[in-house]
């Protein structure tokens, strides 16, 4: 498809500034916490300086959670943009619409019913759960395309999330020990997560992001309606399947490591859309960058708002995201994307 | 359709509605008798009957009191949820809207979990002793949250869509608070709170049944008064005002009744999911009425919850009734949404 040069230049500027924001948020996340560490010391620790106390804090505690937040934020942001584009619902979010809850249920069944907790199996279970939930949503969501039944789908998505959560908690009820694990996992946090699982899902996230970027180009024509898209040479079914696959990989991988985190996938695309407009080829990467920045900032804020404890990133995201959802809801009409 | 005239009062009677209502009543009576007469202790029928009339041994009486409490709890909570769901569905004209979308259950849950995790703070806030602080806190939490949702959603009237969306946002926030409180709790408190969060009739408080029964009674009478205007509202705001049915107070009154019923039910049994949504829709299909009516919803809700509780008790592992209702209700919800989506498409 021919590009308008000026639009491309604008996209480059937008993506570059979002990338700069992510870098700034990363540095902030490394420097801020119960113990504040000046930026030069952070950089020194990263480049392999002396093993001072500060350096140990940075490399052993803050670096892992920062990397997890980067990956999970980008994954959830991109997944949210794809979901919003495919089901054309401005409220779509892997957390609110139950994809993360599906992944969480998969993990709960595996760990607490079958008693398996090998990282590979956990990731696989999360992906299966996410795929099931994403498929239900896409199939029903695509049905609603022509009707503008935005709200109905939103109710369905949140009901799906609540239902899957109820099943998950029924497993938890049967055993005190699993409850103690689940109640911390179910909040959604980037701190204290299993780094071996994180290393395991990294290829999945990369793969999902590549699929998402490619899918963004298909969404350009799909946004004109399936018939027009078909005339323009887009393979509609393949594009939908790639969309489901990418959302599954991204949301499933993020949930397998962090637990279910809502609102990143809602907030990031809305922020990105302000900058890029509705061109999904630019919106998807912008939403991924915005998601990484938002989740990093949420995690960093959670460390300092309630000393001596911490607020988990999942809670901070709900506090940030709910008012944004309210703002979308209080507009005169909810317009289908 | 036949008419029934009694002096100046005329009543329209639909045969199908009457037959279906009688069948539901029969189900309630049958399941109720089953629940009273059978149980893990295997009391013989004559001793149960003796205890019911107050002449059995103290132990028998204790067992039978527990069974009657559970039975009454199921009937009242089911009726309250069914009627509350019918009211919200009528006002929002949305088949999947239940009082949950008004934030009642999530708000009530947040307060209830706070009461069990941080009892001292909640007692200080309400100035009440521990036992009543939890119940009152649940009730107040549900009502306050619903009021916040309604205030935020009010913009020169209640648009059904905006109401649902604002409710979703407030719900998400309340549930995040619940999750956060659970991470701050001691292990034992968290276990109790999690069990409560599923919704269960295991420990229905005997002392709550009478006030809750009165509340349900008053609310159902109010529903009866509102019935005609609600019927007009279901046709849409334009038709309703043509029929003279938008006398300002109908929507607020119906919403208030719905919130009271749902908050009360949550205070008695915890947030039992999907009964409020499913009961009016099942009633609508059984009775063949034009829309979800509160009284039919109440009857169906009572029958559904009693059936679900009977099933939950018959399972090999005793599960709270809330799990049974979510597992059975969710496919029905999916089916209804899929159908509504197809209809809006055409």
From TrEMBL, chain A:
A GO-annotated cellular component:
plasma membrane
Superkingdom of origin organism: Bacteria
Reply yes or no: does the keyword Thylakoid apply. no
Which Pfam families does the record match to this protein? FecCD (PF01032)
Membrane topology according to the record: Multi-pass membrane protein
Keywords for the protein's UniProt record, in alphabetical order: Cell membrane, Membrane, Transmembrane, Transmembrane helix, Transport
Task: Please verify whether the record's keywords include DNA-binding.
Answer: no
Q: Which InterPro entries does this chain map to?
A: ABC_BtuC-like, ABC_transptr_permease_BtuC
Q: What CDD domains does the database record attribute to this sequence?
A: TM_ABC_iron-siderophores_like (cd06550)
Q: Where in the cell is it found?
A: Cell membrane
Question: Where are its TM segments located?
Answer: 95-115, 121-142, 149-174, 197-220, 241-268, 280-298, 310-329
Molecular function via GO: transmembrane transporter activity
What the entry lists under SUPFAM superfamilies is as follows: ABC transporter involved in vitamin B12 uptake, BtuC
Please list the GO biological process terms of this entry.
Answer: siderophore-iron import into cell
- Give the family, as the similarity comment puts it: Belongs to the binding-protein-dependent transport system permease family. FecCD subfamily.
The cross-references to PANTHER family, in alphabetical order and at most eight, read: FE(3+) DICITRATE TRANSPORT SYSTEM PERMEASE PROTEIN FECC-RELATED (PTHR30472:SF1), FERRIC ENTEROBACTIN TRANSPORT SYSTEM PERMEASE PROTEIN (PTHR30472)
Name used for this protein in its record: Ferric enterobactin transport system permease protein
Its organism's taxonomic lineage begins at: Bacteria, Bacillati, Actinomycetota, Actinomycetes, Micrococcales
UniProtKB/TrEMBL annotation, chain B:
The organism sits in which domain of life?
A: Bacteria
State its location(s): Cell membrane
Residue intervals passing through the bilayer = 17-37, 71-88, 100-118, 130-153, 160-182, 208-227, 295-312, 318-338
Q: What is its main location?
A: membrane
One Gene Ontology cellular component term attached to this UniProt record is:
plasma membrane
SUPFAM superfamilies xrefs: ABC transporter involved in vitamin B12 uptake, BtuC
Q: Is Coiled coil among this UniProt entry's keywords? A: no
Q: What is the name of this protein? A: Putative heme-iron transport system permease protein IsdF
Task: Give the originating organism.
Answer: Luteimicrobium xylanilyticum
